[in-house]
Amino acid sequence: MNKFKIASPYLGALCVLLVGICYFYFFACYHFWAQESMQAFIPSQHALCYKPGGCLQFISMYLTQEFVSLPVAVAVPGILLMGVYSCTFRILQTIHSDAINYVLATALSVFLMQAYTNYNIFIDGLLGILLVGLFVIIGLSITKKIGSKAIYSLLAVLFLYFVAQQACIVFALIWLALHLQKGRNAILFSLCPVLLSLILSYYGLSKGEYFSLYEGIYSLGYQRSQFHPYAFIYYIWIRYVGGLFIAGILSYLMGFVYRLSWIIRCASCLTPVYMLIMGLPNADAIRQHQVQQLAYWNRTNQPQLIEKFFQENPITDYVQLNYLNLALAKQGVLADRLFQYRQHGQQGLLTEWDRTALLSDVLGLVHFTIGDYTMSESYATEQLSLSNRGGSGPALQRLAECALLRADRPIATKYLHILQGMPHYHDWANQQLSRLDNGLTPQGVYAQSDALSSQLTVDSLWSRHSFDNEIAQQYRGCSYLLGGQLDLFQSFVIEYQQHHAGELLPVFFQQAVMLLATNNRDLLEQVNVSDGVHAQFLQFLKDTQNAPSLQSVQDKYGKSFWYYYMQRKMQEKS
Amino acid sequence: MKHIFVLFFISSLIVACQGSLPQAKPLAKDAPIWPDYNGVTIPSNICPLNFTLNDSLPAIALISNGKKEIRVDAENGLFSISERRWEEILEEKDIHSLQVTVMQQQPEGWVQYRPFQIHVSSDEIDPVLVYRRIQPAYRMWGEMGIYQRNLETFEEDVILSNSLTNNSCMNCHSFCQQNPDQMLFHQRSTYAGTYMLQNGTVEKLNTKVDSLPSALVYPSWHPSGRYVAFSSNDIKQDYHLQDANRIEVYDQESDVVVYDVEQHTILLNPMTHGKDAFETFPTFSSDGNTLYFCTSEAQEMPADYQKVKYNLCSQSFNPKDGSFGTEVDTLVNAAQENMSVSFPRVSPDGRYIMYTKASYGNFSIWHKDADLHLMDLATGQELDMSAVNSADVDSYHSWSSNCRWFVFSSRRIDGLYTRPYLCHIDEAGKMSKPFILPQKDPKSYELSLYSYNIPELVKGTVQSDVRELVEVSRYHSATPVKVK
C-alpha cells in the first residue's frame, strides 16, 4: 500500500485559493455585477428563507447584491472554491490516503472554477457543494459508531433539505458511496439518508416547488431551455458528484499500484502547472468576461473606458459593437469616431434581439440613450422577465426612469418602492421618490403621437426625434452610412445642417457628403465641409484611381467612411 | 398540570403585554389603510382582511361584530389578524357587519380614526380561486404558473408552473360549472397542447387543424361537460409607441367552434366559419342551449385595429346532436355605440350575462377604458355597475357557483399589474363595493412583479398532481382531434 503522505494538505488549499483568486480577478471580476443584474432581491422579504432551499438562495442573492465590489467578487468564490477543494481532498483521503488525491481534488476544483463563470451557477452552486462537503467530512470524523453516524446523516439530510433543497440527495449519495466498502451494516445504514432525501425531494416535487435534480443529467442545451437558475446548478452538481465518484475509484485503485508511486509524486508536483493550463478560460468565457466588463462600464457611465478597451482589443461581435457605438454616442462623438473602429453594417448600432436578458439590456440601453423610451421600456420589461431570479435591478431602474419620463406616477412609485428595498438601489430610489413630490411632466417621445411598433422602421423611429436630440440624429445619420443608404443620408444631412447652421458637420458626415458631391456638386453649397476633409478626399480619389489593392487603401484610409463604403460596395458586387 | 400552568402563565403574559387601550383623540377622517376595506361586503367564509397603515407608527385595530371584539396590534404598520379569531367573529350568528376602529400613536399622541364598517354577507363564496401569475411582457414571457388560492385561508398551491415545463407558456385555464375536477388549460411553445383534466385523468390534445386559423384558444365549457366552445384565433401582439394602453393584442383571423369532449371532434360552426368576420370569446348559456360569442366585421390588420368593434351575439345550440342554429341574434350592438364587447360570461343560474366593454378590439385587459357591464337576460336591461368599475382597466371576470359573487381583474392600483377583486351581488342585482383578494401581507401586491391573470372561482381544490401533469406534458404525445 502506498503510504505516501502529503507534506501539507493546506498547501494545496492555499494553491487553489491563490489560483482561484487570480482566475476570478482576471476572468470573472465583473461576474458579480452580471449576477446582480439578473436578480431582484429585497432582503426584508424573508419568506424565501422558509422554503426548502430558500436559505441558500437568500444567502447567495444577499452576497451578490449587498457586496457588489471587486474584492468581494474575487474573494467570495475564491474562498468557496478553496473550501470545496479541502472537502473534496478530505473525502478522497478517507477512501485512500494518497498523493493522487491532490491531483483529483484539484481537477474537480478547476472544473467548478470554470463552471462558476461559464454556466452561471451563482454563489448557490458553489455554496451548496461546500455545505455537502462539510457535512460529509464532519460526519466522517465525529464517530465510528454506525448508529450515531446514521442519526447524524439523517439530520444532515434534513438540514440540507431545508437549507439547500436537493443538495441533500448529493450528500446522501456521497455518504452512501463512502460506506460501500465498510460492510453490509454500514451500507444499510447509509441507505437511510438516501431514502429520506428521496422522500423529501419527492414531496417537494409533487408540490411543484422545484424540478428534479435528476434533470441536471441532460445536456447544456436542455438546461438552457429550462430557463431556471437551478438548471445549471443541478447540471454542475451532478457532474461534480460523478467526478467525485470517478476520483474516489481512482484513489481506491491507487492502493493496488504501489509501484507507480513515483509517477504520482511527479503528477502531484505538476499540479499547479496542470491547474494553470486546464484552468485557463476558453474563448466563450473570455468573451463573456469582456461583455460583463463592458456592461459594468456602461452601468457606471464610463464610456471612455469602453472606447479605450476597443483601442486595445478587437471587436468580436455585434454586442460589443453596440457597446462601443453607444459609448461613442454618449461622448457625443459617434459620427466623428465611428469608422475609426471596424464596423459591420447597421446592426453595429442596434443588433437583432435574441430573446436573452443580455441583449434586452443592451438594446434597452441604446434606445434609452437615444430617447426612445417606449422601446427602452419594452426591452427592460423583457429583461425583467428573462432574468430568472425574480427580476432585475437594472431593468427595474430603467422601468422606473421610463415611468418618471412618462409621468406615470402610480407605476413609478411601485418600481421605486421595490428598488428602495434593494440595498444596491436604495439611495437612487429615495432620490427619485423625492422627484415624484415635485410633479412630473411627460418628456421625449412620450409627448409625441402614437403608432404600433410593428408599423415602424428604425429609420421612422429615429426620424421622429427633433434635431435638438443630437444623439438620435447622429444615430440616424450613422445608420444611413452603415447601411450604405446615401440617398437617405443626403436628404437627412441637408436638414441636419440647417439645424446646425454655420457649424462644421461631424467628420464622417463630411466624408459622406464629399462622396455624394461627386454626383451632386450643389450639395457642397448646402453643407459645410472642412478644407482638410476636402483635400483628403481629393487625395483618396487620386490614390484609388488606378485600382490599387484593397490592402493599400486600407492602410491609408482604413479608418474613413470612404474605405468602409468602398469595401461594402465590393462585397455587394461579389 | 405543569404544562397547563405554563400555558396559563404564557397566555397571561401575552394579555398583559397587549395592555389596556390608550386614550385616543377622535379624528373626523378615515383611517389611511390599504387595501381599502372601508364599506366593502365580504363573504362569511373569507380569510382575514389584513391591512396596513401608511406608516409604521404603533397602532391598534379593534374589530367588533357587536358581540365580540378582537384587538390587533400593528407590526411595522401591518395589521395581521389571527385566522382563528377572525373565524370566530365571522362564525357568530346574525352578523351583518364588522366595525373596525383604528388608533395610531402619532407624535402628538394617540388618535382614533373614524370607525368603518365591513359588511358581512351570509352568501358564501366558492372557496378556491385559480389564476395564472405572469409578468406583463411585450414580446416574451418569463416565469409563470397556474395557481390555486384557498380564499378561506392564505394557502396557495401551484397547479403547474413553467419552471417545471421548460419555460412553456400556459394559459386559458377553464372549469366546467366551477367544478375543480373538470378543467382544461393550454400550453404553448414547449409541450404544446390542450390539457383536459377530468376526474383524475389528464389528456393532452393537439387541437391544430388545417381548417382553422390556429389551435383552439379561448374556452368555455358546456354545462353538461360534454362540449367546450372554443375560438380559434390568429393572435398577434404589438405595442404602442405613445399610448396609455401600452400593448395591443389583436386577431388577424378568428372563428368560433365547439369541441366534443367524448368524440375528440371539432364541430365547425357554419355561421361563424369564414374570413368575413372575426368571432371570439364563446360561452354557453347555463342551460346549454345557447352559444354566445363576440363578433366584428373583419378589418385590415393591424392598420385598422381601432376599427374592430365586437358585438355580443347568440346562436342556438343543440347539445343532443351538437348542431348549431341557423340564425345569429345580436344581443348587444356595441359597434353602434362605437364600442366593443369582450369576455361574455353567463351566471350559473342563467339570469345575467357579464361582459367587458371598451372602445375597440377584444383584448380589453390592455385597454384603460375597459369596464364591466351586466345585463339581465330576462329583461335585456343593463344593471348599474358604477360601484364596481374604476378609472383603469376592469376586465376578465368569473362567477361563483351560487351567483352571489364574482371575481374580476382590475389594474386600478398602478395601471399595469392586474389584481383580482371580489364583488357581491344581491338578489336584486345590486352590487357592493368590491375588495381586493386578501393577502397575508397586503404589501406583497406592491412588491410583486406578477399579474393575476384569468381569475376563476371554483367549488373546491383542484386535485391534480403536479408530477403527473409534468409527465404528461413531457412524455405523452398529444391526441389529434378531428373536424366534423
Number of strands of chain B: 36
Low-confidence segments of chain A, ≥5 residues, pLDDT <50? none
Largest interface, per-chain counts?
A: A-B, 49 and 43 residues
Low-confidence stretches of chain B: none
Instruction: Give the N-terminus to C-terminus distance of chain A in angstroms.
Output: 71 Å
- The sequence of SSEs of chain A as H and E is HHHHHHHHHHHHHHHHHHHHHHHHHHHHHH
Largest sheet of chain B: 7 strands, mixed
In terms of structural class, how would the helical and strand content of chain B be classed? mainly beta
Principal-axis shape of chain A: elongated
Number of strands of chain A: 0
- The oligomeric state of the chains shown is heterodimer
- Rg on CA atoms of chain A, Å: 30 Å
**Would you tell me the overall average pLDDT of chain A?**
89
What is the beta-strand fraction of chain A? Answer: under 5%
Can you give a write-up of this model?
The complex is a heterodimer of chains A (574) and B (484). Chain A is built from 30 helices and no strands. Chain A is an all-alpha fold. Chain A starts with 8 loop residues before the first helix and ends with a helix. The mean pLDDT of chain A is 89. By secondary structure, chain B is mainly β. In chain B, strands 1, 3, 5, 6, 8, 9 and 10 form a 7-stranded mixed beta sheet that branches. In chain B, strands 14-15-16-17-35 form a 5-stranded mixed beta sheet, with helices on one face. A 5-stranded mixed beta sheet of chain B has the order 18-19-20-21-36, with no helix packed on it. In chain B, a hairpin with a 5-residue loop joins strand 30 and strand 31. Chain B is globular. The model of chain B has no long low-confidence stretch (mean pLDDT 93). Classes of the chains: A mainly alpha (574), B mainly beta (484). At the A-B interface, helix 10, helix 19 and helix 21 of A face strand 13 and strand 19 of B.
